[in-house]
Amino acid sequence: MNTRRRRRSMLTSPDFTEDRQMAVQALLNRPFVSRQHDPETYQLVREHFRTLRDWFHEQTGWALIVTRQFAKLEKTPGRYQSWMAIEGFRDGRDYGYFTYGLWFLEGLNEGQQFLLSEMVEAIREHLVAAGLFVDWTVYDHRMSMARALKKLRELDVLVAVEGDETDWARVGDADVLYQASSLSRYVLQRLPDDIGDFASITMEEGDGPADSSSHHAADDASDGINVRDSDNSGYQDAQADPLQHLESSDVFATVRRRHRVMRRLLQEPVVYDWQWTEDERRYVQTQRASIIDRMESLTGLQGRRFREGLLFVWPDLTSESSLFPTLGVRSDIALLISAALAKRLQGPTVQYDSHENGCYHLTRSDMESLVREVREASGDYWSKEYRELSTSRVAEDAIAHICEWNLGAHSDGGGLVAYPALLRWAGEYEVEGSDGE
Fold first, then answer.
1. Using CA atoms, how far apart are residues 377 and 162, in angstroms rounded to an integer?
2. Per-residue pLDDT at 185
C-alpha cells in the first residue's frame, strides 16, 4: 500500500508532469529526438513511453516509435496547410529528389560511405527506367538536388564526410563523400495503401500510418519496447477487414473524428468553429471541457472557449515551438495593427464591413492607413529594414504574417479579412520611464 501511494505521489508531482510535458513538446516539434544529440530529452521520452504512446494512439492516432538511437512521433496532419511545406524547398522537383535520395539511402548499411556522383547517377538511371527525365547538366536540376541533400543532412539522415553539395550544384563536376545513417528508413511515413492508389491528397487525410512493426521490431526488441503496440493508427484494422468496418462503422467514424480534431488542435495555431465540419464542430462544442482536460493533462496547453471557437495557448515560452507573437518585427507590426484596429472598432461608427463570424473586411487602402498610423506612432522602434520599406510593402508583409498564423485571410484586391482571434491581441512598445506595456 505504501509503495502504491509513493508511486501515485511521484506520478502527480510537478516535476514528473513538467518532464512529461517537455517530452511531449519535443516530440511535437522535432522530426526526431536523437539520443546522440539530446540524451536527456530522449531519456524523458523513454521514461514516459507507455503514457505517451497510449495517449497519442487514442487521441490522435499517431504512432510513437522509440529505438536505441531516437524517438519519433509519426505526425499526420488533421488537415494539410501550406505552411507545413519543407522550409527551403521551392517546387515539386525538390520533394521528388528528397524522396529518391531516401530511396537510395535505404539500400545502404548504416555508416556506409559513398560519393555524390554515385548517388545522382543511381537516381538518374532509376528515373529513366520509370520514364522520367533528369539531366544533371541542367543547373536547376542540380540546385533542386542540392536543396534536397541539405535537408537530408539537417535531419541527420546523411553525413557529409568531405566536400559540400553546393560546389557540385554550382560547377557540376565537384564530388562529395557522404556517410549513410539508419534514420533514412524512418523519415517517410508508411501509408495504409500503395500511394499509387490515392487519387488525391484528401484520400489520405485523417489516416494514420500503416503498421510498420515488421520493419522496425528487430531494432527495438532489445529495448523492451514493443513497436507493434505503438505503431497502429487506431483504425487500420477496420480498413483491412471490410466486414469489421461495416459492423463497427459508428465506432470507426467516432475515432476518426476525434483524431482529426485533436490533430488540428495540436498542430494549428487557431481553428475557428466555421473551419470544422458540422460533425466536428458539434463534437468540439459538446466535448470542450473534456478536450481541454485531455490536452492540458498531457501537453500543458491551456484551452478556453471563445465565441469564435475553442482556442489553446502555451502558458509559458518554449524554445521547442514556433509561437505567436514571434520575435520578429512582423509580429510587432501585426500587434500594433490589431490594437489600432480595435481602437477604431470601438469608435462611434464602424468603418469596416463585418461578417456573421465576427470577421472584418479591410481593403488594401484600409491596411495601409493602419500601417501609416502605427508607423507614425512607433516606427522608430522598427528594424532598419522595415523603417525603410514603403507603406505598401509593410502592409503586404503584415497581411502575409497575419494570414500565416490563421489570424486573417487574404481578400480580393490585396486586402485582409481580419479573423476574431487577431483582435484578441494588442500591443504597444514599452517606453522607458512609462507605465505602458
1. 53
2. 86
Instruction: Return the residue matching grid coordinates 509580429.
Output: 331
Q: In sequence order, what DSSP letters do the residues of 146-205 get, joined into one string?
A: HHHHHHHHHTTSEEEEE--HHHHHHHS----EEEE-TTHHHHSPPPSS-GGG-SSGGGTT
Q: Decide if 83-187 and 329-424 have a common fold.
A: yes
> What DSSP state is assigned to residue 302?
E
CA distances from 246 to 106, 184, 253, 260, 418 (A): 38, 37, 11, 21, 43
265 or 196, which is more confident?
265
Task: Quote the DSSP letter at residue 265.
Answer: H
Classify residue 123 by its DSSP letter. H
Residue 173 CA from chain centroid, whole number = 37
The residue with cell 536540376 is: 141
* Cα–Cα dist 393/82, whole Å: 22
Cβ proximity of 286 and 323 under 8 Å: no
Whole-angstrom distance, CA of residue 276 vs CA of residue 283:
10
Here the cell at position 145 is: 538536388
Name the residue ranges covered by the structural domains of the chain: 1-75+201-316, 83-187, 329-424
Dihedral, CA atoms, 148, 152, 154, 158, nearest 10 degrees? -140
Model confidence pLDDT, tens digit, residues 314-342 = 887 777 778 899 989 999 999 999 999 99
Percent of the chain beyond pLDDT 90?
A: 64
Q: How far apart are CA 343 and CA 177, in angstroms?
A: 60
83-187: which CATH topology? Answer: Arc Repressor Mutant, subunit A (1.10.10)
CATH 1.10.10.10 fits 329-424, yes or no: yes
Question: Quick check: 97 and 123 in contact, CB under 8 A?
Answer: yes
Query: Would you mind telling me the total number of residues written for the chain in this entry?
Result: 437
